[in-house]
Specification:
heterodimer; A: alpha/beta; Methane Monooxygenase Hydroxylase, Chain G, domain 1; 8-stranded mixed beta sheet; 4-stranded antiparallel beta sheet; 20 strands; B: alpha+beta; Ubiquitin-like (UB roll); Fumarate Reductase Iron-sulfur Protein, Chain B, domain 2; two-stranded antiparallel sheet; 10 helices; globular; oxidoreductase (chain B); 4Fe4S_Fe-S-bd (chain B); 3 iron, 4 sulfur cluster binding (chain B)
C-alpha cells in the first residue's frame, strides 16, 4: 500500500475532470486519478455541439436558453443553476476556442451555430441556431482540446487508477482510495479537496449509447458512504440510437434537416410536436417513436424500429456536417445514408440525476448542508441543470461550466484549509472488496448477472414505465444482488486484472439500478424522461421536488433505500404545460 | 408534408431481415501473462456468432463466457475512444470498428497486441512512450499577445486546411504499424507528427517554428520512409503519410 498527499484530487479525466484540472493545477497541487487514459473518456462520443447564445448567426440571448433548459427539464430544473450555466455558456465556448478548439466556422470566420432539439427563439416560437459545433465530433474536439491544455499546464495524471472508496473523517473529506490496474496495488490519496468527475452509469441498460466503462463508480461509492443521490429515476433515452446496437446518431442530424419516419414514410413527429417537429426534446421524440412502434407503425419485419431519413439532404452537406455518423451507418449497418434511411431506436443515453451539488460544485449531504472539501461535476453530479430531461448539447456545456467552477472551488478550498487526518486503516474497505472477489469460490459469473440486469432494466425501467414493471425491476435487481454475493472471477492475478474490476463495476451498477427503480416507483407522475403509464400526467402538487435517495444500513449489515425530497429552486419561470 | 413511401435498397432489406445465419469462428489470440508464463502463447477460442458483430463483441464473449483472464482495453465500442487498437489478421485495426465478416472468418482470425510497444499482458501494451512522443511536439495552441475578447476569426478554408489531422483519436494504430518505429524506439512516430501537423497548419497558431525544430531532429520526420502503413492503419481515415509529407515540405520551405 502506498500513501500519497495532494492538495486536490480529481477523480476522472473526461471533460469535467480535465476542465477542473486545468483550473486547479494552476492553483493547488493536483492529481487526476482516472481509470482510463484521459482521451478514452466518453466525452469524446458527444457529437452535435455545445449551445451558447453567441448570436453569431441569428438573434439569441442567454435568457431564452435558460427558458428552454427549464422547460426541457419539465420544470424540475433548479433555475438559479440554469441561469448560471446559460450565462456562462458564452465564455465557456469562447474559452474553448481560445484553448484551440477547431469549431466549424461561418463565412465571416466566426464560430458557426446550428439548430438542436428543444432550443428555441423567444420562449418556444421557432427553432434557433444556438449549437456551436465542430462537424459531428464536437465532443471529440472538446476532449482533445482539454487534454492538450492539460499537457500544456503539466497536469499530473495517474492513468488506469480505479478510485474505489471515499475517505471521510467526522464528515469532512480526507481523501480517496484507488486500485492500480497495472499492479493490483492499493494507493491511499490524502487530499484537502476531492472532485468527482467520473461520468455516467448507462451500462445498466442493454441498448445504450454508453461506453463499457460507464458504470457509475463515483455515484456508487459516495452513496455507500451515506451520502444521497438525487433524481436517479430521471434517465434520458436518446431517440436516435442505431437499431439494436444503441450507437448514438446525433440530434445534429435532425438539426441539419433529418426527418424521423415510420413504416408508411410519414413524418410522424408533426403529430406529436407541431412547432418543433423532429426537433422536439428528446423525451418527447423517444416516446413518440415507441408509440409508433406499439401502434404497429414501426419498420422492418418485426416493426421494432423507425427511420432517421437523411436521403433528401445533399451528400456534400452530409460529408461536411455529419461525416462520422454517416460513417457509422456504413460501418455497422452496411447501408448508404445518401440513399437509405437509417434504422434507429431510442437508446439509453444520460443520467440526469447523480451526486447532488450546489452551483459551486460542493456536494450536499442532505437538503442544505455540504460535505467540506467534496465536489462533483459533470454527468456524475446533479446540480440540477437538467431536471427531468436534459436538452441536447447541455451536457457538454455542463462539464465545461461546472467542471471549471468545481476546479476553482476545490483549489480555493485546499488553499484555505488543512489536511484532515486519515481514518484508521484507510485502505481496509477496498482491501476487503478486492480480496473478497479474488478469493471467492462462488458459482455466479459477472457476465451473466450483468446480462440479466440489463434485460430487466430494458424491459421494465425504460421509456414506458408502470408500477408493475418497476416492482418487477426492483424484485429482479434484489435477486441479482443476492446472486452477486456468490460471484467469482477467473483471473486471480495482480497484473491488469480487468476481470476483477468488471466485477467491482457490476456491483456499482446493481446498487445504482436499484436506486433508479425504487426512486421511479415512488414517483407516481410523469415528468420529462420519467413516464408512468399509470400516472400519465405531471403532478406539481406532490412531485415538484427532487428525489434524494440514501442508503440505510441495518444492524445486521443489510441495506435498504430511504427516500427523501428536496424543493426545486424556482426563480423566474412558473411551471406551464409543456408543448413543442 | 409527408412522403408516401420510403425507398428500400437491398442492403437495407438485408439489415432489417435480421435472422442472420450464425457461424462458428475460431479466434487465435496471442496470450501473454508474465505472472504465469515468461513466453507468449497462442490460444484458440471457438465461438458461435453473427458475422455482422464486431471483433470486440467476440473478445467480450470470450471474456464473459469462456475465459475471464483474457485482457484487453476497450471503452466506447464504436471507434472514437481509441482504446482497442490491435493486430487482427496481421493488420492494425480497432476491434470495435472491425466486423467479423470482413476479416475472413472461414479461417482462424488471429489477434495480437500492436507492435513496437512493450506488451504488458495479452493485448495490453505500455502506452507511455507513445504519449510521451505526443507531448514532445507541444500539442496545444501557441499564441502571442493578448487573447481577443471574442473568438479568433478563422475562415472556413483555413479551418479546412487542418481538418484531417484533427480526427486523430491517439489509438496508436499508425505508430505501431510503422517499420521505422518498430526498429527505432526513439522515432516520434506518425501519431505525434499528425498532432504536430494539426497545429502547424492551424492559422491561429504561432508555434510552428518551435514544433518544426523539434521535428527536424534526427528522430523526427526525416526518419519516415513513406511506406504508407500508417495511412492504411488509421481507423479514422486520416491521410497520415500525406500529413507527414506536408510537415517535411514545411521544414524545407518554411511555409505553412
Amino acid at each position: 500500500m502506498q500513501i500519497h498527499q495532494y492538495d486536490t484530487v480529481i477523480v476522472g479525466a473526461g471533460g469535467a475532470g480535465m476542465r477542473a484540472a486545468i483550473e486547479s493545477t494552476q492553483r493547488s497541487r493536483t492529481a487526476v486519478l482516472t481509470k482510463l487514459y484521459p482521451t478514452r473518456s466518453h466525452t469524446g462520443a458527444a457529437q452535435g455541439g455545445m449551445c451558447a447564445a453567441l448570436a453569431n448567426v441569428e438573434e439569441d440571448n442567454w435568457e431564452w436558453h435558460t427558458f428552454d433548459t427549464v422547460k426541457g427539464g419539465d420544470y424540475l430544473v433548479d433555475q438559479d443553476a440554469a441561469e448560471i450555466m446559460c450565462k456562462e455558456a458564452i465564455d465557456a465556448v469562447l474559452d474553448l476556442e481560445k484553448m484551440g478548439l477547431p469549431f466549424s466556422r461561418t463565412e465571416q470566420g466566426r464560430i458557426d451555430q446550428r439548430r438542436f432539439g428543444g432550443h428555441s427563439r423567444n420562449h418556444g416560437e421557432a427553432p434557433v441556431r444556438r449549437s456551436c459545433y465542430a462537424a459531428d465530433r464536437t465532443g471529440h474536439m472538446i476532449l482533445q482540446t482539454l487534454f492538450q491544455n492539460c499537457v500544456k499546464h503539466g497536469v499530473e495524471f495517474f492513468n488506469e487508477f480505479y478510485v474505489l472508496d471515499l475517505l471521510l473523517n467526522e464528515g469532512k473529506t480526507a481523501g480517496v482510495v484507488a486500485y492500480e490496474l497495472a499492479t493490483g496495488e492499493i494507493h491511499v490519496f490524502q487530499a484537502k479537496s476531492v472532485v468527482f468527475a467520473s461520468g455516467g452509469t448507462g451500462k445498466f441498460f442493454k441498448v445504450s449509447s454508453n461506453a463499457h466503462t460507464l458504470t457509475g463508480d463515483g455515484q456508487a461509492l459516495v452513496y455507500r458512504r451515506g451520502l444521497p443521490l438525487e433524481d436517479m429515476e430521471f434517465f434520458q433515452f436518446h431517440p436516435t440510437g442505431i437499431w439494436r446496437m444503441g450507437i448514438l446518431l446525433t440530434e445534429g442530424a435532425r438539426g441539419e434537416g433529418g426527418i424521423l419516419r415510420n413504416k408508411d414514410g410519414e413524418r410522424f413527429m408533426e403529430r406529436y410536436a407541431p412547432v418543433m417537429k423532429d426537433l422536439a426534446s428528446r423525451d418527447v421524440c423517444s416516446r413518440a417513436i415507441y408509440t409508433e412502434i406499439r401502434e404497429g407503425r414501426g419498420c422492418g419485419p418485426d416493426g421494432d424500429h423507425v427511420y432517421l431519413d437523411l436521403t433528401h439532404l445533399p451528400p456534400e452537406q452530409l460529408d461536411a456536417k455529419l461525416p462520422d455518423i454517416t460513417e457509422f451507418a456504413r460501418t455497422y449497418l452496411g447501408i448508404e445514408p445518401y440513399t437509405d434511411p437509417i434504422p434507429i431506436q431510442p437508446t439509453a443515453h444520460y443520467a440526469m440525476g447523480g451526486i447532488p451539488t450546489n452551483v459551486e460544485g460542493e456536494v450536499l449531504r442532505n437538503n442544505t448542508d455540504v460535505v467540506p472539501g467534496l465536489y462533483a461535476a459533470g454527468e456524475v453530479a446533479c446540480v440540477s441543470v437538467h431536471g427531468a430531461n436534459r436538452l441536447g448539447t447541455n451536457s457538454l456545456l455542463d462539464i465545461n461550466v461546472f467542471g471549471r467552477r468545481a476546479g476553482i472551488a476545490a483549489a480555493d478550498f485546499a488553499n484555505a484549509n488543512e489536511f484532515v487526518e486519515l481514518p484508521e486503516n484507510p485502505e481496509e474497505k477496498v482491501q476487503a472488496l478486492v480480496d473478497g472477489l479474488r478469493e471467492s469460490t462462488g458459482t455466479e459469473s459477472v457476465g451473466q448477472i450483468r446480462k440479466e440486469l440489463q434485460e430487466t432494466m430494458d424491459a421494465n425501467a425504460m421509456v414506458y414505465r408502470t408500477g408493475a414493471t418497476l416492482k418487477q425491476a426492483v424484485e429482479d435487481i434484489a435477486a441479482l444482488k443476492e446472486r452477486y454475493k456468490n460471484v467469482s472471477i477467473q483471473d486471480k492475478g495482480f497484473r491488469y486484472n480487468t476481470d476483477l474490476l468488471e466485477a467491482v463495476e457490476l456491483g456499482n451498477l446493481l446498487d445504482l439500478a436499484e436506486v433508479l427503480a425504487v426512486s421511479a416507483l415512488a414517483r407516481e407522475e410523469s415528468r420529462g424522461g420519467h413516464y408512468r403509464e399509470d400516472f400519465p400526467t405531471r403532478d406539481d402538487v406532490k412531485f415538484m421536488q427532487h428525489t434524494m435517495a440514501y442508503q440505510e444500513v441495518a444492524a445486521d449489515g443489510s441495506t435498504s433505500i430511504r427516500l427523501d425530497y428536496k424543493p426545486v429552486v424556482t426563480t423566474r419561470y412558473q411551471p406551464m404545460e409543456r408543448k413543442y | 408534408m409527408s412522403t408516401p413511401t420510403v425507398e428500400h435498397s437491398a442492403a437495407l432489406d438485408a439489415v432489417e431481415a435480421g435472422g442472420t445465419q450464425l457461424i462458428t469462428v475460431t479466434f487465435r489470440i496471442r496470450r501473454f501473462n508474465p505472472e504465469e508464463h515468461p513466453e507468449p502463447v497462442w490460444v484458440d477460442y471457438q465461438l458461435v456468432m453473427d458475422p455482422k458483430e464486431r471483433v470486440l463483441d467476440a473478445l467480450n464473449k470470450i471474456k464473459w463466457e469462456q475465459d475471464g483472464t483474457l485482457t484487453y482495453r476497450r471503452s466506447c465500442a464504436h471507434g472514437i475512444c481509441g482504446s482497442d487498437a490491435m493486430r487482427i489478421n496481421g493488420r492494425n485495426r480497432l476491434a470495435c470498428k472491425t466486423l467479423i465478416k470482413d476479416v475472413n472468418p472461414e479461417k482462424p482470425i488471429t489477434i495480437e497486441a500492436i507492435k513496437g510497444l512493450t506488451v504488458l499482458k495479452d493485448l495490453v501494451v505500455d502506452m507511455d512512450p507513445f504519449f510521451q512522443a505526443y507531448k514532445d511536439v507541444m500539442p496545444f495552441l501557441i499564441t502571442k499577445g493578448n487573447d481577443p475578447t471574442r473568438e479568433r476569426l478563422q475562415s472556413a478554408e483555413d479551418r479546412e486546411r487542418f481538418d484531417d489531422t484533427t480526427k486523430c483519436i491517439l489509438c496508436a494504430a499508425c505508430t505501431s504499424s510503422c517499420p521505422v518505429f518498430w526498429n527505432d524506439g526513439q522515432y516520434f512516430g506518425p501519431a505525434a507528427i499528425v498532432n504536430a501537423h494539426r497545429f502547424i497548419f492551424d492559422s491561429r497558431d504561432e508555434g510552428a517554428e518551435q514544433r518544426l525544430e523539434i521535428l527536424n531532429d534526427r528522430e523526427g520526420v526525416w526518419r519516415c520512409r513513406t511506406t504508407f502503413n500508417c495511412s492504411e492503419a488509421c481507423p479514422r481515415g486520416i491521410e497520415v503519410t500525406k500529413a507527414i509529407q506536408e510537415v517535411k515540405r514545411a521544414l524545407v520551405t518554411r511555409r505553412f
